[in-house]
Amino acid sequence: MVGPRLRVRRLVGPGFEKYVGDHLNDFAKDVIRLASQPSVSARKEGIEECAALVEKMLEETGANTRVLKVEGAAPLVYGEIKSKRSSKTVMFYNHYDVQPEEPLELWKSPPFKPEIRDNVIYGRGVSDDKGELVSRLKVVESFLKVDGDLPCNVKFFFEGEEETGSVHLHEYVSKYTDLFKADAVIWEYGTVDTKGTPMVTLGVKGMIYLELVLKGLSQDAHSSYAAALPSAPWRMVRLLNMLKDENEMIRVPGWYDGVTTLAEDELEVLQNMPFDGAEFKKTYGADGFLGGMGDAQAKKALVQRPTCNIAGIWAGYQGPGSKTVLPKEIHVKMDLRLVPEQDPQDLWNKLRKYLDDNRFADVEMQLISMEPAARTSYKDPFAQAAVGAAEKVYGVKPIVELGSPGTGPLYLFTRTYKMPSVDIGVSSLDGGIHAPNENLKLENLRKGMIWIAETIERFCAT
Length: 462
Prior knowledge:
21 strands, single chain, Aminopeptidase
């Protein structure tokens, strides 16, 4: 909710703001430079080349860099710069891989040839996450050019597999444990809403992403044999139907064990978070929310309700016209979103047992990725620094999200290293991430960089 104009002492000086404003077009060119290099992790396209470019840009910023590697993984680009003023360390986590660019016919300009139109950069990755990555580099550059030093030590941590589940990130953190120690983390992505109000996000849901494979026959059969032969698709329909009840609750025994209600202060933060249910439903063409929920219930569910979603399903003939076939097998991809109290490995085991106990032991469960949820307390000094910085830079109270309904590997830092984390940055909710005509507004880039800088100054001054 937009609040009154506030008077809060500012730590980032006018020289910093002037430098950012004077060099904004140069910063935009660096966003274009990085986004011009394809790096589609789903196809393993351009990953090595993009990692090399990211390292080069880190070196240009003045960082000591290392390209870390584990077998079978995309390179992880690491860098650090020491401060003479403070022993505290802030880490930037970002990713240089991007989503596939399809459908190409909906782009108004080539996705990997970014261009600026009306002070907006268009191209795949300019918002998620290459524009955010560059903004962090340029915040550091601006500090060094204006002050000759940083408010604290800075570490950079740029991976190349976020868009495919960060499947090797745990190996990296385990292998290079000491490199990832810091006092706080600024996470990959941050936004302003469609009205220009900054959003401070304090966590993410966890997720189990899996594929179910059910094979009934050794080969496809003529559909007339359905009178005598078993149907894999029909068995899968019955399996899926037993995963949730008529009230949309997950039926796997023990699925909600340990899940707690939000604390009183968390409920207050949630209540203050604006949510336009009518606009949300209109955007997706929905007649109503799941199970007839009202707006308040839906808002709470996005933060604190586990999900069991069918992401894709296929079997048999998919082409035009008809082909009378009894498919030999069926595949279903599912994502199961988790809240902070849930252990994905424990739930994986419970799901396996549930299928076995209900005569689906022959169904193969293929794990694609697994991540616990993570959340930083609203009361944490780093969260408060981000909130206070937003109030000063934007002149309004920010929207505080307890957690995003999405997922990322945040748990490795909040759980393993016990580091607070905030999602703040330079993007916008209408930036078209994962979609054609992804974009980044230059004014958001400018203001978001000042917000990041002010957050760091405030945190390091405490």
